[in-house]
Design brief:
Blueprint: E1 4-7, E2 13-15, H1 16-26, E3 32-41, E4 48-54, H2 59-71, E5 78-82, E6 85-87, E7 101-106, E8 112-124, E9 131-137, E10 153-155, E11 160-162, E12 174-176, H3 208-219, H4 230-235, H5 239-246, E13 249-251, E14 255-257, E15 259-267, E16 270-277, E17 283-288
Antiparallel strand pairs: 1-2, 1-9, 3-4, 3-8, 4-9, 5-6, 5-7, 7-8, 10-11, 10-12, 13-14, 15-16, 16-17
């Protein structure tokens, strides 16, 4: 697996250690005080991300970010630990210091373990988001074990990689290959991960939902087809499955919950449900893949 990564601020490609130095030298600018965090797979450090966290945020913001980019599948519990003791998610980021290390666990059954390190203090322009992705490892490229074409799926029982053409539709145990240390675990398919690096798009690429839509418009330039409304896409989904989706939305306060008072938005080829948690009335959202 390649250990190089991409800077989402300027597009530079370099190794993990050099990327930290690059960010501190080239992108340590702005009015907002943050900490630079590094997260990496506890048992496979070739999966790594660097991100800034506003100092007046809580650790729960990091939990939510790690769930979205790397972990969330079924609303499992998670925890931060240090020296064997659990660290409260309500703890303020400002109380941490450079060099502090945390052990993050998601799902206490088929557990994904992540090492989180406070790298340094860093400045950034003011952002709406508490957590902003700055850099990420390049996606793992595997070859199909049958034909050597680029693989898209892994058999979690046989550890076998296959492309779309070589998969037996009747065979079970296949999961999509995703850029996450949770790849192949439980039901994880990267549904909430929208942090895709687009090398030919403008930088910085921090607002990835907007980036993704803009990139789609560039790809579709000249296409005269009328885009479906989000209601039309949602309407093509079986009503029984619609209800399942509505009742399995993640809330950072309540865990798995039901979304209520929701609206529908197009998100490239998918539909985004945005509404309120039925338990606490907090804002929740769910991305529904329609392809």
């Amino acid at each position: 697996m390649a250990t190089n990564g991409n800077c989402f601020m300027c597009g530079k490609t370099t190794a993990k250690t050099a990327m930290k130095n690059h960010i501190m030298k080239e992108h340590n600018i702005g009015d907002e005080g943050c900490y630079l965090f590094k997260a990496e797979g506890a048992y496979d450090k070739d999966y790594w991300i660097l991100f800034s966290v506003r100092q007046n945020s809580k650790l729960s913001a990091v939990d939510e970010f790690l769930r979205e980019i790397w972990c969330e599948c079924c609303g499992h519990l998670s925890a931060f630990r240090r020296g064997g003791s659990e660290v409260s998610k309500s703890r303020k980021i400002s109380t941490f210091s450079k060099g502090d290390k945390l052990h993050y666990e998601y799902d206490f059954g088929s557990t994904t373990e992540i090492l989180v390190t406070v790298m340094d203090e860093v400045k950034r322009p003011k952002q709406k988001e508490s957590v902003v992705l700055l850099a990420r490892n390049e996606p793992y490229v595997a070859n199909c074990d049958e034909c050597s074409a680029p693989a898209e799926y892994v058999n979690i029982w046989e550890n076998k990689c296959l492309c779309e053409d070589c998969i037996d539709e009747d065979e079970e145990g296949f999961m999509p290959i995703v850029n996450s240390p949770r790849s192949g675990e439980c039901g994880y398919d990267g549904e909430l991960d929208r942090w895709t690096f687009y090398p030919h798009e403008p930088f910085p690429q921090m607002c990835l939902a907007e980036n993704r839509a803009r990139y789609a418009r560039v790809e579709d330039e000249g296409d005269d087809e009328v885009e479906e409304t989000p209601e039309e896409r949602w309407g093509k989904i079986d009503t029984h499955f619609q209800q399942k989706l509505i009742e399995s939305v993640f809330c950072r306060k309540c865990g798995v919950t039901t979304i209520k008072d929701y609206t529908l938005e197009n998100n490239q080829m998918d539909v985004l449900l945005k509404g309120k948690c039925a338990k606490c009335n907090g804002k929740v959202a769910r991305l529904v893949e329609c392809e």
